[in-house]
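Regression test attached.
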Amino acid sequence: MIRKVFAKSAFFLRIIFVVGLFLILIIGGFTYRHIYNLTDSTKQVVSTYKVNVELEKVISYLKDAENGHRNYILTKDTTYLEPYLSAREKVNESFAELKEIANHGENQEENLKVLSKYIDALFTNFSETSTFISGDETLSEAFKTNFFEEKIIMDSIRQKVNEMIDFENSLLKKHQEQYQSNLKFTPLFLYLVLLITLVLIIISYYKINVDFKNIRLINSQLLIFKEAAVQLEIIGKHGNWVWHIDKEKYTFSDNLYRVLGEKPGSFVPTFENFISFVHPEDKEKFAKDVEDMMKNEDLPFIYYRIVQKDGTIKHIKGYGKLLINNEGEKRIVGNITDISDEIERFLEIEERNLELEKNNAELSEFNYVASHDLQEPLRKIQTFISRLEEKEAKNLSSFGSQYLERIKVSATRMRLLIDDLLQFSRTNKPDKEFVLTNLNELLENAKQDVTETILEKKAIITNDVLPTVLVIPFQVHQLFLNLLSNSLKYSKTAEAPVIKIEYSLINSKDDHNLINVSKSNYHKITFSDNGIGFEQQYAEQIFELFNRLHNKQEYSGTGVGLSICKKIIDNHNGVITAQGEPQVGSIFKIYLPE
Amino acid sequence: MPNDYINIILADDDEDDRLFFTDAFDELKMNTKVSTFNDGVELMAYLNSDDAILPNVLFLDLNMPLKNGIECLNEIKANNKMSDIAIAIYSTSASEEDIEETFVLGANIYIKKPSSFKQLKKVLSEVVSMNWQYHTNGLNKDNFLMRL
């Protein structure tokens, strides 16, 4: 998010910079042109004045020549011819100037040529007049004509020069006007451009200021993160290192030194210095891992041990990842973690688990073997009793028969206990397969198993339709059988047993018996009877092994049946509860996860 | 005449059990000839001998020293000459594992040794007079264990 904002801002600033640069260039260009124009105009003005001056000069030389010439005519003194003689040269000089400067259009050039012609004509005339003077024909007709011609040519020259000066002046005026109009918009334009540039600079300043504020904010957050990271490193026993690939340099965090049992910064962060801490047995593998890291620019999870200076061995887990920053600089950022505590705890738990498993297996084995091996002598005792009864009954006294009967009852009870115990230990074995089973079938089978008792006690059993659930079939069969047997066994003597089996699918939130369970939906099956019931305070106890609420002369239970029920329900991650009221009945609720 | 009586063999290491077994047949008076062996080694030595008379029904205890019932069952079923003998497993326990294993190996019925002599006689007479052909055709895991 922040990066995006800055990227956008940088883009914006770049545009402002380019636009600003462009505008300044425009201003420069305009100023240059403006000054150029100014110089140009000045040159024009200077040139025009120079032309005018030269032209005036030409007129003045010609006048001097004319004057000198006339004086000569009057006095016939050749000294008056001085200006006339030098005039020709001076006019030529002025013409040379005029030729260079008078690039003011074809018109002026043409005029200049015409002027030149007139001047040539004038001087030809002068020299002709002079010959008349030397021949003393001063007042001859030819002389007069010549003299008159002189005047006419001089007038033409005057007129031409005036024409040219006028032209030059009009040219100057035109230039001036054009320059004025140019000058009129330029300042406005420049001012506008300057204004825009100023606005852009202000926007840039504002933008940079905002960015700067953001950067400051982010920097302060970064500082907090950094501090938090440092604290986390200490708490979590982490150490951080960075390998600057391009510079081939390492940096280690303070806590990395602490993990190694050293003071922060106590040695130069190099690979050689680090590996000197690695456990000698792990050195080779560690060096190879680091070599691979340098080659692949990646470090997967690695595990090794280090030996601190005081000899303490620590288990270390390491990890690193390549990081390329905006400038394309490559670094691998990695962490090491002291996992010694974890490993110690893990080993401890492992050991305890093994012990527990062994104990469990032994117990299970013992339970099974005991019940199993006990059966054989007992069976034989029972068989011998039956033989004795059959064959020797008539030889026994009434006491003998009575004792034999007692022995028989005890043996039968012992068989019951062993059978139940065997059943219980079988329920203990966890590796049973869960099969999607129709519970109605299991209930029917269980009913079949107790048909005799049902008939004998005239019991009435009603049940709802049960669902199909993922269960260990033989165990749930046993569960149903045990619950039915229980209800039939603890029935009232005067009343026929009535057993009601009800079913509903419920949500765990809707039943106070389902607290701290993992699933949300449960199959609830309720077995309620009208038997002798029990005091509610024993509701928990009755599920304990060999726990009986009645004496065995009255009721023949072994105290194992309901323990088996509990175990089976536990195996299914379900819940079983008992609820009783003396002489009213008992209710057993079982909950199986959907 | 060998065919006049039903030839029965019991292999069981327990002396009392052998006694109950023979006594029961004595009392049943079913025209049977009962021979007993003390363990699997003795049993297999007899069955493998040339002059052995193969029994109609072989009662096999599982838990025997030297060679147990499962090993005997394996050997018998692997031998063409003996594979047709009807085999009744005769054991103190009726654990799921034992029932499963012997059923898979091809035993014909599984009897849990009863705890009264009267029941023993009843079971033995039923087994001996059983129609093996019929029983074996309809054999499945549910009726494999003989219900008392």
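Expected vs. actual: identical. The two ends of chain B are 34 Å apart (CA to CA).
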